Amino acid sequence: MTPIFDLMVNDKLVDDIFSICLAEHGGVITLGDYDSQTMKSQITWVPMVTSYPPTFYTVSLPGYMRIGKRDVNLPKFNTAIVDSGTTLLVVSTNTFLGIAKHLKTHHCDVPGLCGKNSWFQPAVCVTINDAGLALMPKLSFLVGPDKEVLELLPEHYMLPFEDTGKKFRCVGIMTSDGISEVDVILGNTLNMRYVTTYDRKNSRMGFSQRRKDCGLATTRCESFWRCEECAAAQGCEYNYSLKGCFEKNQKTASWFPYPSCSGPLCFCRFGIGGWVYHAVVGVGMGLLVAAIVILLSRLAISSRARQGYEEIPR
After folding, report:
1. Given the DSSP bridges, would you call strands 79-82 and 184-186 parallel, antiparallel or unpaired?
2. In this structure, what is the dihedral angle of CA atoms 221, 224, 226, 228, given to the nearest 10 degrees?
3. Which domain holds residue 211?
4. Has UniProt tagged this entry with the keyword Mitochondrion (predicted)?
5. CATH no. for residue 108?
6. Are 161 and 255 part of one and the same domain?
7. How many Å apart are CA 166 and CA 271, to the nearest integer?
């Protein structure tokens, strides 16, 4: 089946160019052009090789990566595809070992990085504070014949993750030795940092640092994506059904902590199973209110019955 964008290009409805901007939640895809409102820097263009049919978009690498201020030669590091459908950076096992060896040689001031039980493993999550994270070096990919620099700071390739109230940083690199067409896949570890523009008409790819939230206008509450942050924000409520933070609706707000909760009624520490807890608590509170109403009704009926009995003449 021909992709709808290719049909639009063939019918000359749009130019053969598109761009993708990925944010923490959502993003922007532009067909037939690029959207400068998503970018906070000028576009850097590099030659691009497109597969046929146009499925993969390939750029060249020089055989080495810049780690901090040092250029480190790496095996299988000459071609890369830029792919928004891949979550992490993907390299061969030997390439990852080369990166790890350099880090363990020059950056042992990072807690837990060196030694036999090093946490620097593919896609492994670790507890590391901001001071320790700041000791990690920049990772730079030099793409195209002019070696244009795409730079990742530690907070870009050490991805934030939270589970049951605990905060982690996860290595945003995984390994695969089954990649045959190219050496490296530049996935969303990189694409969350840069807006990518695929100019297929001119066989070139553009990179530009993205604006926060891709320049999208969001409400104050929508900027909170974690339940804990949403619950602590005045005037916001977290919706477990929609998995998002929204302005609190005073007309529909209730004391039931499901499907929406706010303030201390949000038990975010229950993590993934929290919605079950909130549903149970919500139903329980509903049953409790119903029981109280029934009890009060029966007490009222009983009181009227006693009054009627006392008024019967003897």
Report:
1. parallel
2. -60
3. 4-215
4. no
5. 2.40.70.10
6. no
7. 10
Q: Where are the alpha helices (DSSP H) in the chain?
A: 4-10, 93-106, 130-134, 154-157, 188-191, 227-232, 274-310
160, 189, 215 — which closes off a domain? 215
Residue bearing tokens 């070696």? 147
The whole-model pTM stands at 0.70
Single out the residue of 186, 195, 132, 183 nearest to residue 158, CA to CA.
132
Q: What are the DSSP calls for 177-202, one per residue?
A: S---S-SEEE-HHHHTTEEEEEETTT
Which H or E run contains 82? strand 79-82
Q: Is the same domain home to 99 and 225?
A: no
Residues 100 and 209 reside in one and the same domain: yes
- Give the length of the chain: 314
Q: Model confidence over 181-229: pLDDT tens digits?
A: 789 999 999 999 999 999 999 999 999 999 988 888 666 677 677 787 7
Q: What is the mean pLDDT of the chain?
A: 85
| Closest to 96 (Cα-Cα) out of 133, 128, 123, 135 | 123
The tokens describing 164, both together, are: 């049951």
Query: Distance between CA 204 and CA 197 in Å, rounded?
Result: 8
Question: Token pair of 84, please?
Answer: 């928004």
Strand partners, 60: 79
Q: Is the domain of 54 the same as that of 76? A: yes
pLDDT per residue over 14-52, tens digit each? 999 999 999 877 789 999 999 999 999 999 999 998 877
Same domain, 47 and 146: yes
CA–CA distance, 26 with 210 (Å, rounded to integer): 13
- Taking 90 as the threshold, does the pLDDT of residue 248 lie above it? no
